């Protein structure tokens, strides 16, 4: 992933990612996965993309980070959601002041209304002409002060009903960002209506039934989504609802990062990059885009593909059309392939905006987005391909062994300890031994008998990334 980032992402974005990587030691792939939806949330308020004549999509990104405890999900949540939380706090502070002004205006308005009604009653008692007074009262009703509406961009703990309420109306742009997957998988249950989320990704207008209240229409809604979850929480949810989410295409609309496929890596200081306030500069760009749309205008800047970019887009679209035919490489992943080009164009749009380019989206941006999308497609295949279940478990076991060797400051770990202390999905002799054999054959780990200790596991070489 580091090579992909260095060669194929805007300098501003690369510096932000490496800034966090240097400070926190997190896998750059996870940082990218967190920052893309964040930037897309700001972009979706002001931009739309005309991919083909009459085919317009919002530049929003859905992403899912699946990583274990201690990985740094709260850090990732902070760098992705923080800039929007600051904006909301500023808006709420302004709304509090506006509310005080509103209360004062309402007090004066009520007093004037009482005076007008008193004059009206007196005129009636005198049998005087009240037509002009009635007009004055009508105008006074029209001039009734309006209370400032508090804006909310992030929905991190919303129920399905609450989310729909927030999106009802016209041109609503929100981010569903959650630091723990249980909030949306279990408590919020927003995933109980995947069609609703698909509509948000597509920017498709739809009706919201509010029970016994009047139904409302959600017009041109857009949402970015970023969910962090523990592997066991996600696996449990996937076991129950994964088939449905794949059927409706929600998984295919999502960029997945799985920790077991992308091992935590140490900061790579040998790369040439400028980390001087890299993340701050990136956040400043997001902030400028948000503030540029504070008037809430529904009119968006329409971006198009340059002729060269459009030709490249069509070639990728044609490739996947053939690659999903029977016996072809993506036969069992036609759902992911179908949404691949959309995600590619969305990311290309974000790269274009990060580079502050004018005019249509360039071929260079869409090629870079294609390379990044390919990495995410491989992530999804690694996890969702049932034939690779053993490989996924082997990678998870390697990750656990590697982490424990570092924590315990040792060069070996007893085989029997693996039976007892590995994650529940791996635990037990009958599960561990086939994985040990697989990792040994690939020379990723080695085994050795130590007198008085027994069979131990070692890692002869440290790997930043392990693939089969």
Which short descriptors sum up this protein?
468 residues, alpha/beta, Rossmann fold, Arc Repressor Mutant, subunit A, 2 domains, four-stranded parallel β-sheet, three-stranded mixed β-sheet, 16 helices, elongated
What's the helix count?
16
Q: Averaging pLDDT over every residue, what do you get? A: 86
Structural class comes to: alpha/beta
* CATH C-level category of the largest domain: Alpha Beta
What is the strand and helix layout of this fold?
Elements: H1 2-8, H2 11-24, H3 28-44, E1 47-52, E2 55-57, E3 62-66, H4 73-125, H5 131-142, H6 160-167, E4 169-170, E5 173-178, H7 181-187, H8 194-202, E6 206-208, E7 216-219, E8 222-229, H9 231-248, E9 254-258, H10 278-291, E10 301-304, H11 307-323, H12 334-354, H13 363-384, H14 389-407, E11 413-414, H15 415-421, H16 429-441, E12 446-450, E13 454-458
Parallel strand pairs: 1-10, 3-8, 3-9, 4-7, 5-8
Antiparallel strand pairs: 1-2, 6-7, 11-13, 12-13
Helix pairs in contact: 1-13, 2-3, 2-10, 3-4, 3-10, 3-12, 4-5, 4-10, 11-12, 11-13, 12-13, 14-16
Task: Summarize the model shown.
The protein is 55% helix and 12% strand. With 468 residues, it is an alpha/beta fold. It starts with a helix and ends in a 10-residue tail after the last strand.
């Amino acid at each position: 992933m580091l090579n992909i980032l260095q060669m194929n992402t805007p300098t501003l974005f690369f510096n932000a990612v490496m800034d966090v990587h240097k400070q926190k030691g997190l896998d750059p792939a996870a940082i990218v996965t967190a920052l893309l939806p964040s930037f897309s949330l700001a972009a979706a308020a002001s931009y739309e993309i005309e991919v083909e004549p009459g085919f317009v999509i919002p530049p929003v990104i859905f992403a899912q980070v699946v990583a274990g405890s201690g990985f740094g999900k709260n850090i990732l949540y902070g760098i992705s959601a923080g800039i929007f939380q600051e904006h909301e706090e500023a808006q709420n502070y302004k709304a509090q002041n506006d509310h005080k002004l509103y209360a004062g205006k309402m007090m004066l308005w009520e007093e004037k209304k009482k005076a007008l009604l008193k004059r009206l009653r007196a005129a009636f008692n005198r049998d005087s002409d009240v037509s002009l007074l009635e007009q004055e009262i009508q105008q006074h009703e029209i001039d009734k002060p309006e209370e400032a509406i508090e804006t909310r961009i992030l929905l991190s703990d919303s129920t399905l009903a609450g989310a729909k309420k927030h999106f009802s109306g016209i041109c609503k742009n929100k981010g569903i960002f959650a630091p723990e997957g249980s909030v949306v998988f279990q408590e919020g249950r927003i995933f109980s209506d995947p069609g609703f989320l698909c509509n948000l990704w597509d920017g498709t207008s739809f009706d919201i039934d509010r029970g016994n209240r009047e139904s409302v229409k959600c017009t041109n809604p857009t949402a970015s989504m970023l969910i962090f979850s523990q592997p066991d929480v996600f696996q449990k949810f996937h076991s129950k609802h994964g088939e449905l989410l794949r059927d409706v295409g929600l998984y295919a609309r999502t960029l997945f990062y799985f920790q077991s496929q992308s091992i935590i890596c140490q900061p790579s200081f040998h790369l040439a990059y400028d980390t001087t306030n890299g993340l701050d500069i990136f956040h400043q760009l997001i902030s400028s885009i948000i503030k540029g749309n504070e008037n809430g205008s529904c009119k968006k800047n329409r971006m198009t593909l340059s002729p060269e970019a459009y030709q490249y887009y069509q070639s990728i679209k044609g490739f996947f059309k053939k690659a999903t035919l029977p016996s072809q490489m993506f036969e069992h992943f036609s759902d992911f392939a179908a949404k691949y080009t959309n995600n590619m164009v969305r990311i290309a749009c974000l790269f274009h905006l990060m580079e502050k380019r004018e005019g249509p989206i360039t071929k260079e941006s869409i090629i870079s987005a294609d390379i990044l999308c390919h990495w995410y497609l491989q992530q999804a295949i690694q996890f969702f391909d049932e034939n690779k279940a053993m490989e996924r478990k082997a990678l998870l076991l390697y990750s656990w062994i590697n982490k424990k060797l570092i924590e315990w400051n040792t060069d070996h770990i007893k085989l029997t300890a693996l039976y007892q202390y590995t994650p529940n999905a791996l635990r037990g002799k009958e599960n561990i031994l086939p994985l040990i054999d697989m990792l040994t054959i690939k020379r990723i780990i080695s085994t050795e008998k130590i007198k008085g200790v027994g069979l131990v596991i070692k890692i002869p070489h440290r790997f930043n990334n392990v693939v089969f």
